[in-house]
């Protein structure tokens, strides 16, 4: 099975093919910055909350695929193709998260402090997921008959743990955004301008 692995993660672009060694990552084409004067009417905070929901979905998907790989490790009769299919799906999700993280980094300056903190947490985990995916694919392609070795299992276990950690963190951010919106709506409906 020949798979191509372009991994986009935040400010790093990682590339590797299953049949070739990893290459030095070129910089991401997406550069963080402040919104332009023309964009001051955009709802960057709302956009970030939507992106958080999308990243949560990607992280849950990665967790599901990593869990499947872990179940394959208990049944070593499965071929590398089964593992490769799951890793391809993970690669696609990591690439998707990388693009979304890139957008979050661009609008970071216009976000609320709590949202900036979540962007930082996402930015810390997405490159880990990219590296773990790349490592698992490269190892698996070169060692298809010994996918039970600890080095491979460590990568797939880390994929599960880091995607789970990311899903939980972003889920809390999504919940916080929802509660904050409900609070502002209720405050407006009641005609109050202050806190409790």
What is the CATH domain class?
A: Mainly Alpha
Average pLDDT reading:
80
Distance between the termini: 61 Å
Discrete helix count? 4
Order of helices and strands: EEHHHH
**Large-scale geometry:** elongated
CATH fold description: Four Helix Bundle (Hemerythrin (Met), subunit A)
Roughly how much helix do the residues carry, as a percent range? 55-70%
Q: How many domains, in number, for the residues? A: 1
Poorly predicted sequence stretches spanning 5 or more consecutive residues? 1-27
Biggest pleated-sheet summary: 2 strands, antiparallel
Name the strands of the widest sheet in spatial order: 1-2
Number of strands: 2
CATH superfamily: Alpha-catenin/vinculin-like
Quote the beta fraction. Answer: 5-15%
Q: Provide the structure class.
A: mainly alpha
Rg on CA atoms, Å: 19 Å
For the record, the CATH architecture stands as Up-down Bundle
Overall description:
By secondary structure, this protein is mainly α. The chain contains four helices and two strands. It has a two-stranded antiparallel sheet with strand order 1-2.
Features:
196 residues, 4 helices, 2 strands, two-stranded antiparallel ribbon, disordered N terminus, mainly alpha, Four Helix Bundle (Hemerythrin (Met), subunit A)
Brief summary of the model shown:
The protein is mainly α.
List strands and helices in order, with pairings:
Layout: E1 4-9, E2 12-17, H1 44-73, H2 80-107, H3 113-142, H4 150-190
């Amino acid at each position: 099975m020949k798979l191509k692995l372009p991994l986009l993660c935040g400010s790093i672009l990682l590339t590797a093919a299953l049949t070739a060694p990893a290459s030095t990552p070129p910089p991401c084409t997406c550069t963080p910055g402040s919104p332009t004067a023309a964009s001051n009417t955009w709802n960057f905070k709302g956009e970030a909350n939507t992106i958080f929901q999308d990243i949560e979905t990607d992280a849950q998907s990665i967790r599901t695929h990593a869990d499947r790989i872990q179940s394959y490790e208990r049944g070593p009769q499965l071929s590398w193709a089964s593992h490769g299919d799951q890793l391809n799906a993970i690669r696609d999700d990591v690439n998707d998260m990388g693009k979304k993280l890139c957008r979050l980094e661009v609008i970071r300056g216009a976000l609320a402090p709590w949202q900036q903190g979540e962007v930082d947490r996402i930015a810390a985990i997405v490159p880990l997921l990219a590296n773990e995916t790349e490592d698992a694919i490269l190892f698996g392609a070169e060692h298809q008959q010994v996918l039970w070795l600890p080095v491979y299992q460590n990568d797939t276990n880390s994929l599960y743990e880091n995607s789970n950690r990311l899903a939980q963190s972003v889920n809390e951010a999504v919940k916080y955004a929802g509660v904050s919106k409900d609070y502002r709506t209720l405050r407006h409906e009641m005609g109050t301008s202050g806190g409790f």
